[in-house]
Amino acid sequence: MTYEVVIGLEVHVELLTESKLFCSCPNRFVPEPNVNTCPVCLGFPGALPQMNMHAVQKALTASLALNCDIALHSYFDRKNYFYPDMPKGYQISQYFEPIGRKGFLTVEDDQGRPKIVRIGRVHMEEDAGKLVHAPGGNTSMVDYNRAGVPLIEIVTEPDLRSPGESRRYLEQLKRILQYARVSDCKMEEGSLRCDANISLRPAGREAFGSKTELKNMNSFKAVEKSLEHEIKRQGIILHRGDEVISQTLRWEESKQETIVMRGKLEAHDYRCFTDPELAPIELTSGEIEEARAALPEMAEARAARFKDDYGLPGYDAEVLTGSRCLADYFEACLAYYNNPKAVSNWVMGELTAQLNIADLEVDQCSFQPEDMSDLLKMIDENLISGKIAKDVLEKSFKSGKPPRKIVEEEGLLQISEQSELEGIIEKVIGDNPDSIEKYRSGKTKVIGFLVGQVMKETKGKANPQLVNELLVKKINS
Amino acid sequence: MELRKLSINQVAEAVCHGEITARRLIEETLKNCSVLNEGLNIFACISGIDALEQADAVDRKVANGTSLPLAGVPVAVKDDICYGVLPTGLGSAAFKEFPSPYTATALERLMNAGAIIIGKTNLDDMSLGSTTASSPDGPTANPWDVERTAGSAGAAAVVTGICMLAIDSDSGGALRQGASHCGVIGLRPTMGRISRYGLTTYSSSFGQVGITAISGENIIHALEIVSGFDKRDASTAICKERLGGKSDFTKVKGIKIGYPAAIFDYLDSSQRDILDQAREEFATKGFEIVELELALLPEALQAYYVIALAEASSNHSRFDGIRFGTAEDAGDLEELYRKTRSRTFGREARRRSIFGTLLLSKGNYDFYYRQALKIWKLVRQEFANTLAKCDLLMLPAVKTLPRLVTEETDFLQAWEDDLFCAPVSLSGLPSICLPAGQAGKLPVGLQLVGRPFSEELLALVGDQVIREIKLFPHGIS
What we know:
The complex is a heterodimer of chains A (477) and B (477). By secondary structure, chain A is an alpha+beta fold. Chain A has 15 helices and 16 strands. Chain A has three domains: 3-285, no CATH class; 299-409, no CATH class; 418-476, Arc Repressor Mutant, subunit A, CATH 1.10.10.410. Chain A has a nine-stranded mixed sheet with strand order 2-6-7-10-1-11-12-13-14. In chain A, a hairpin with a 5-residue loop joins strand 6 and strand 7 (114-126). In chain A, helix 2 packs antiparallel against helix 3 (220-239). The termini of chain A are far apart. Chain B has 477 residues and is of the alpha/beta class. Chain B has one domain (1-477): Amidase signature (AS) domain (Amidase signature (AS) enzymes). Chain B has helices at residues 8-16, 22-40, 48-63, 105-112, 153-159, 174-182, 216-226, 238-241, 269-284, 297-315, 333-344, 347-360, 365-389, 411-416, 422-427, 455-465, and strands spanning 43-46, 74-78, 116-121, 141-142, 145-149, 165-170, 185-188, 208-213, 256-259, 288-291, 392-396, 431-439, 442-450. Chain B has an eleven-stranded mixed sheet, with helices on both faces. A two-stranded antiparallel sheet of chain B has the order 4-5. In chain B, strand 12 and strand 13 (442-450) form a beta hairpin. Chain B starts with 7 loop residues before the first helix and ends in a 12-residue tail after the last helix. The relative contact order of chain B is 0.15. The interface between A and B is large, with 29 and 42 residues.
């Protein structure tokens, strides 16, 4: 029997706000524990939550960017359960009435065709603290810096049909939320977290099979891997004629396998009720339209603009707009150096290569748009060759030194003085009589080899065009 | 000059004009307190050193020419309201030494106005009750009959003249019933008029900060200082919509008093006679008495308990021994919760947490909690309709005379005592409890309920109709 895979994703993202959801503590990562805390986010008796309207604004923006219907009237509920990272013994979350419902996203399916993935709900909630287990001992500590950080949870309908599709959904979601400046969506840092629900059903059947929930995936790749693993595991069970147990599984990255975290999905009764300490969120249709109009330019629109305004090929435009920060970087370079195709080549080529090696996002590296522009200007001014420029970029990327300073300090300025080159050219001609003979007999391609020899002698600093010119002149004279 | 017969305004003026120092006043207060407290068990915690430091600070400010509207006025504060200097005991054995990291807004405002906090007053188990009988420190005795409970220790502190003001909490009626049992005036303000930041309430929907004093004038004087918008309590936003948060009424003439005759049938004849006389006195003084109906009190009482119990189970979840209170030694998390919570809560608190948990559970939520919310809405509507036919509504305050200290009351019977107060809490309206007369040596109060923000009118009417307040002999003189 063949089985169809049914996947639904629950994604939590941290909102980019100055302060926490219900108090004025900074929403910022700090290594020192329990410093970004106050009586409110520590759940001290008598402290009351205060609504952060900026967080509401971000959640509204996200819901609009994900094509959701917006609730004019939504509110917060308490999800009651005990855990040490939960200061109040309940989490404040939009359980009954989320801010956004019935949205969708378009992703490519495995055949490369566009496919609609429905988003059931987008709701706001507060984050919990973090448990820190002391190594070796039997002591656990709690850090409440993260407690009360604003989150939105984005829940898809069970519309995804493969691990690859799921990964593409996450990539697209991340791109949109980054473009909308809702979240920085860094999965490795926990500002985007993903749980997956997965089940298998006989192809053609409508009823869902029993599902499992996967947790603890720390990258998009891990989501894909864990889903692949779980499909195999459930497939084996079903082929055996057994039933899949509905439970929560934890992805173990080091072992590339899942382990059971807890049984029965429906075991918890959170006793949700509307939080009596928070007023409902009332939005007017005017406010919603205002937020819609203020939505930032999304990837597709930006790619189109890159093609039209900067004359970039479609491929370049798509790669550059693949993440908001890369597109921002590209446009920042243009402010200093207006040659879009040259900037595009260098951003997509050398810079991206360095970023991949260092495993960084472009907004995390010290090689600034000013540096990129200056580097390209030096090539145009014949101060350095393209080859030297690549080395300079790498050095600047690693050291943080401005490229011009590296060129000066390391004496990398291109030799463009005829007098400096003449001696070397004569030496190369003298050393390679065979090549000169070939050239004279009409095999002019050999000039490339001779230019190379001069470059070698000058450690790449000679201006290759000038060398070419001088060589031809010398041989022909 | 008998100080306690002066208004707090007069006392503040005497201090500001240098007729008496705040230090001298507070020394007298503390002397009185040490004589009276031992027999009555009014205070959970007194700090003479702190009170005298506050007094000296007030004297210094006054000497510098600062005019303070409450200079030197001694205040008692219920021990469920956070004051950063003294421990906040919450009515729990585990919180005897709990240093609250902050001070409630109402107390901050009183102290800025020159009032002096003498100590924290006794209260029921986790503030759950209207008698003080379940206090871990034992009940507060009624000054008029030490065999009986005072209802509210703050009222006892005021009627004995130890303090001129008591800042109390009131959810189902503790403040108002205490005022009735001790023979003083107690105000529960409109929801949102006094900031609740720092009130460690078990019921977020109904818990309120109120004021107890010996005259309506004193209450209004204090109310002006403690009330108003506070960004730390969202419910106070309503004060910004009202003209400076003040009442529109200033004159008593032409005021209609609603009298729901059937309600008084719940009382025994001795109490009923007292309230009948009070009603006649209203008529004699020129108030118009309007007979009307108020049908929903029994249902309102039930709805109050369903909602308040549900909220208590959630609000009390934060007492897990991890961030505050005294944590018990335990081998694992489960044991830590069990031991710590067993020590934190007395019988009443445990009962309410368990009931509340049950009421919110799957299968019960719709039948109890959702129904209670519906009743709540109807009750608000009924009170609003009633107060469209009259300016003030007259109700009993207590169902029985204060209970004997030794009496083992069935908990349901004790909850029934809130029949006249809890429904008013549901309405969100302001109400005041005034001394109406005496049954034997015990005072009996009556309740007046007004429209939102009619506290000034309530106090004014109160001062017009109450006979001379009988003060317990031994006050400051």
